[in-house]
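Homework help thread (please don't just give me the answer)

Our assignment gives two proteins as sequence + structure token strings and asks us to describe the second one. The first is just a warm-up. Here they are:
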Amino acid sequence: MTDTYDLVIIGGGPGGYNCAIRAGQLGLKVACVEKGETLGGTCLNVGCIPSKALLHASEAYENVNTTYGALGIKASGVSLDLDKMMASKVETVDGLTKGIAFLFKKNKVEHITGTGRITGAGKVEITPAKGKKTTLTTKNIVLATGSEVTPLPGVKIDEQRLVSSAGALSLPKVPKSMVVIGAGVIGLELGSVWRRLGADVSVVEYLPRILPGADGEVAKQAQRAFKRQGMGFHLGMKVTGVEKLKTKLKLSMEPAEGGDTQVLEADVVLVCIGRRPFTQGLGLEEAGVKTDPRGFIETNNWQTDAAGIWAIGDCTTGPMLAHKAEEEGTACAEAIAGKAAHVNYGVIPGVVYTAPEIAWVGRTEEELKEAGVAYKKGAFPFTANSRARANHETTGFVKVLADATSDEILGVHMMGANVSEMIGEAALAMEFRAASEDIARTCHAHPTLSEALRQAAMGVEGWTMQM
């Protein structure tokens, strides 16, 4: 290890490793401290990437058994090899973690395995899994420690039958029944994986709707789509406990507004009520780094109140998204290097990788109404999109919200096949403060799913025309 650094980063997830690579590209002497055996953090090892691998594989499995027949493809003898599916997931993760390690070497970033803790101004103590502690001296410290699963009081996760999102990615067999606690992004994604593979899945949510934070119209249509697929919902319900029996789990719940207790039985219960910042044991208080009542590190342009200490990603406020952390990591490195740095927090897309997919960027109708912003709306259904009809993927729609006076795009909301890939165009338009007419008058290839975005933009001024 080098004795003195320009920058030491604690945490090797999306925020941390992007910060490290960018700092290395800018000529800084960088070390990245990661307590896990591999780089990539929660996202790459037990989150975004393995879940997407299983979502893709499970969707392909379901399509062979259900939708391909309508396309004239007959299949027989199709069976699930869960071990092979899991092995494919592991192979994907392994390749990507090695890719980050390669980029570290390429950009002269030192990867240090161990737990990092601030012990003084410009001092980071490293505790390895084995061996002696060491201390690094640095001009700047970036905290990129991410988040962890929020526990549910009275429910002890064992990662066997009572599982978190991490355990749900490695179940040894398909459960006959699963109850998902939490109708947010993670719960719906993982619940859909196991439903496709054969589990009877029910979702319990404290709020009276699914996908809190998403556009209300999108959430309602998404719930209808998931119910048609066989997923059950118990909304406005508070979980009061989970009893472990020899062969079953008994989940007790009651209406959030009060009422009689109801019971659901399941082989597996998945707890997905959110995540909380991982900020314990970092020496923050001693270093003068402030946190809010929920444990998030307080920052101003990624700088904490303590000189030379910065924070990015899930351990700070804002959406807990890997791409938000990546943006902050890159910008933070550039700021440390003395360059102009900026993150447009109003143009960070959100995606739910279910089938149909759900994606959005900008503000929802509910947010605009609450803020008293006058807006116009254009919408277009995939049932009228040529490519969607040809692909037999007609569930969903695209909605564009624009300022009533200036026509600047304020929000775009989508539900349908491949909208995770389409939302980038909307984000780019909003980054350049485009008007809905700018998208409406941009030629899109025909036939493509992306034409639905153009038609929705046309609809803002009432001149939608395609079938």
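The one we have to describe:
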Amino acid sequence: MFELDIRNRKPIYEQLVDKLKELIIHEIFKADQQLPSVRLLAKELTINPNTIQKAYRELERQNYIYSVPGKGSFVTPQSNTLNNEKVKKMKEELVKIIAEAMYLGMDKNEILSLISQAEQTVKGGNTRD
């Protein structure tokens, strides 16, 4: 399914959260689709099940997934209200990041190029240049 880098400074559970978010955002995992069980994913990735559980809890806290006791974890269908809140927060973050990038010397064309690159990634185009 995906690989985690154990040499990366980022904790494994955070890498897992990021990878699963990416799969959900790119609709590899569709709304209401069941995620792999904690045990299955732990065995597949050869990591501690508690690490998987911690990642799932974080994804649930962020409303990317929901749990059904005895059934497992599922992808949360995105509501417009939730999306609007996320978009508002994302816009605020982007303004800060773009301002910092410009301060560090990036010009508008470089930033627009990165936006085009991100758009291609979301649309399923080439993710690497």
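TA reply:
I won't write it for you, but here's a hint about the kind of observation we're looking for: The chain has a mean pLDDT of 88.
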